[in-house]
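[Automated response] Your request has been received and processed.

Submitted sequence:
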Amino acid sequence: MLSWVVVEHGTRLAAAGELGHTLEAVRWGADYLGRAHAAPETLYVQVGDGDSDHKCWERPEDMDTPRNSYMVNPSNPGSDVAAETAAALAAAAVVFSTPAPGGDRQYASTLLAHAKQLFEFAKNHRGLYQNSVPSVRSFYSSSGDEDELLWAATWLYIATGGQEYKACIAGASNLGGVRQALGWDDKFVGAQALVAKARYIYSPTD
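Generated structure:
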């Protein structure tokens, strides 16, 4: 979401003297997600235990709750979280692909490589991540993966212009219909807004 703000309002952020700070925040998050993508079809999606962490009110330096890490992979899929991560990295790639101050095309290329691999992983290995990492059910369970797949395809199309991503958007069986809000478990509104802004994907009569 922060990347989307930069894409649409970068000049205003720059005028306010906040573009540099915003790019630092985007890079921090993108670095984390890139490192969590340990292999083409392996993504680490959780560190720690939600129940014990929510009971811990200490500084991070003093925490002694379990720091186990959990991943999704072909045997234990999480197409929702993988596609969401792909979207985030593709959006960050759009931010850093600009030649304007703060741009870093080599870094953008690295982010885009991660995003492409994660999208393919999500498409080829469908399954909700709470079924692979049951401990997330009490906190961030997912209602489906179609919104994240559409969201990811849209950001990848914006980042690359690739016809395969355009085809994914045009061929989606579920475009979300009328939604109430954009949230962590529902990205249909975001994808719809992006597609509307990039209306050249469809003919004027569609």
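Summary generated for your ticket: The chain has a mean pLDDT of 91. Residues 105-124 form the longest helix (20 residues).
If you did not submit this request, please reply to this message.
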